[in-house]
Design goal:
This is Inosine/uridine-preferring nucleoside hydrolase domain-containing protein. The chain is α/β, with parallel strands linked by helices. Helix content is 37%, strand content 17%. The structure holds beta-D-ribofuranose and calcium ion (CA).
């Protein structure tokens, strides 16, 4: 199985990413979860990660959870100038989409709080990656802003050859936090810039793909039919996310972004990708946080291709894997 560290900010869809990553042990070995501020504060995203793990049966610290960055690399000044979300303390928490807890709609019990690893996310990443080699690299699946990953590749450049990165983020169509920007990138564009220039082999799962992966009412019913407290909570997440997406974006059903990045590790052959040059706009203004891709290979002359962009996925296969994983989690 592929060794994986999941760096996330749960987060409704991050919660499903955790389940997909934790319940496919024959294809993916989940070595650790690291958390970052994004959908909510670091404290809340960390608590949410622990709650999800606990809810699907990981009562001990079998999978270490470590906290990372509590703010983007260059915030608060820059982010405030890029958005009008000045009501938030640090960063630009999308409360409208994910609620005050970051996972509104569910009420996961937390009987005993498992301990958080004492290491910072990037140090834990380094300790784990050191045990692997360039021949058997660790995949960092990033489903939140790229702050932790940027710090890791900056502090431990010698370990870059031992990792691959699969990230959910960016868009080449319309944005979801700015007209041309996707949330994970705009939350910390400098971090994204560092990661995109790191030389690490990157696979990007942009909104162009994830907006095709909608949790339809039929899928929601399948989750509900698992008929347990866990299923009720997972369905509650979908319902809250659905209502947000209907209200804000006019989507009939919510897209399930983050598990698509985990799915890429499970079976890359289910995806259609294009290897191109992608740059991140780190300036302010209309296009702040935009991911700019040279799909024709004509415009960024002299700059090597750096990102494997996923544009399509076998969606039937994805839902089959996701629902199987939820079923297994439900049986714990
Ligand atoms: C991304 O932003 C967050 O709202 C989701 O968890 C996902 O990672 C989608 O733009
Ligand atoms: Ca996320």
């Amino acid at each position: 199985p592929a060794p994986v560290i999941l760096d996330c900010d749960p987060g409704h869809d991050d919660a499903f990413a955790i389940v997909l990553a934790a319940f496919n042990p024959e294809l993916l070995s989940l070595l650790a979860i690291t958390t970052v501020s994004g959908n909510q504060s670091l404290e809340k995203t960390t608590l949410n990660a622990l709650r999800i793990l606990h809810a699907c049966g990981f009562r001990e610290n079998i999978i270490p959870v470590a906290k990372g960055a509590s703010a983007p690399l260059m915030l608060p000044e820059l982010a405030d100038s890029r958005s009008d979300s000045s009501q938030h303390d640090v960063g630009i928490y999308p409360v409208e989409v994910h609620g005050e807890t970051g996972m509104d709609g569910a009420d996961f019990p937390l009987v005993a709080i498992p301990k958080v690893d004492e290491r910072k996310a990037w140090h834990l990443m380094a300790d784990i990656v050191s045990l692997y080699s360039a021949e058997c690299p660790v995949t960092i699946v990033a489903t939140g802003p790229l702050t932790n990953v940027a710090l890791f590749v900056t502090l431990y450049p010698e370990l870059r050859s031992r990792i691959r990165i699969v990230l959910m983020g960016g868009t080449f169509e319309r944005g979801n936090i700015h007209p041309t920007a996707e949330f994970n990138i705009l939350h910390d564009p400098e971090a994204a810039h560092i990661v995109f220039h790191s030389g690490v082999y990157l696979t990007m799962i942009p909104l162009d793909l994830t907006h095709q992966v909608l949790v339809t009412e039929d899928i929601l019913r399948k989750i509900q039919s698992l008929d347990s407290q866990f299923a009720k909570n997972m369905a509650g997440l979908v319902e809250f996310f659905r209502d947000s997406y209907q209200k804000i974006f006019g989507f009939p059903s919510p897209p399930l972004h983050d598990p698509c990045a985990v799915a890429y590790v499970l079976d890359p052959s289910r995806f259609e990708t294009q290897f191109i040059r992608v740059e991140v706009e780190t300036g302010k203004g209309l296009c702040a946080g935009q991911t700019v891709g040279d799909f024709y290979g004509r415009f960024f002359v002299g700059k090597p291709k750096n990102v494997n962009v996923a544009l399509k996925m076998d969606i039937g296969w994805f839902w089959n894997s996701m629902l199987q994983s939820l079923k297994k989690a439900n049986e714990q």
